[in-house]
Write a structure and sequence with these properties.
With 166 residues, the chain is of the alpha+beta class. The chain is built from six helices and six strands, in the order αββαβαβαββαα. The protein has a single domain, classed as Double Stranded RNA Binding Domain.
Length: 166
């Protein structure tokens, strides 16, 4: 099958169906394997700079990210997450209903030993969710969706057994 035909089929499926999630995450300075196995996030600090979000975003982000991390980082060693969101773009509902849209999040996750203040791991977090037509409802919850994505990407990068998949 040619690349052009495969791309056309992918585009048609995307427009007719739901969402596709893409990751642009990676380790800057990965956790030591012993920290990854025994770590748990007990505190989340958020720096969101000048991004345009609702007043509820801080609470949404902390709650959603903590819920994801509670599922993957279950050790005894406390860690503090210092999250920085550099970009949060929300899909335009009208454009999504007609053609397609995307929610985009870019940021960093720094894991710190709260006892020493030393950074023990750092990750680039990038999540893009593209959707069309019927995905307009799912894409409308951009802050919740991108907060979940941040937590999932950090779990995958830092706390998955054996590290992130290739």
């Amino acid at each position: 099958m040619s690349i052009l035909r495969a791309s056309a089929l992918f585009g048609a499926a995307l427009l007719a169906s739901g969402c596709v999630s893409l990751s642009r995450s990676g380790a800057v300075s990965p956790l030591d394997s012993s920290v990854a196995q025994d770590g748990r996030v007990t505190e989340i600090l958020l720096d969101k700079g000048e991004i345009d979000v609702t007043p509820e975003f801080d609470a949404i982000f902390r709650q959603r990210v903590q819920a994801k991390l509670d599922g993957c980082a279950r050790g005894r060693r406390p860690l503090r997450l210092e999250a920085r969101i550099e970009r949060l773009s929300k899909a335009n509902p009208l454009l999504t209903a007609v053609v397609a849209g995307a929610n985009v999040l870019r940021g960093t996750a720094r894991l710190v030993d709260p006892g020493t203040g030393e950074a023990v791991g750092e990750y680039r977090i990038g999540q893009t969710v593209v959707g069309g037509r019927i995905a307009v409802i799912r894409l409308a919850q951009a802050e919740e969706q991108m907060s979940d994505g941040f937590g999932q990407e950090l779990c995958r990068q830092a706390f998955s057994p054996g590290g992130p998949p290739p």
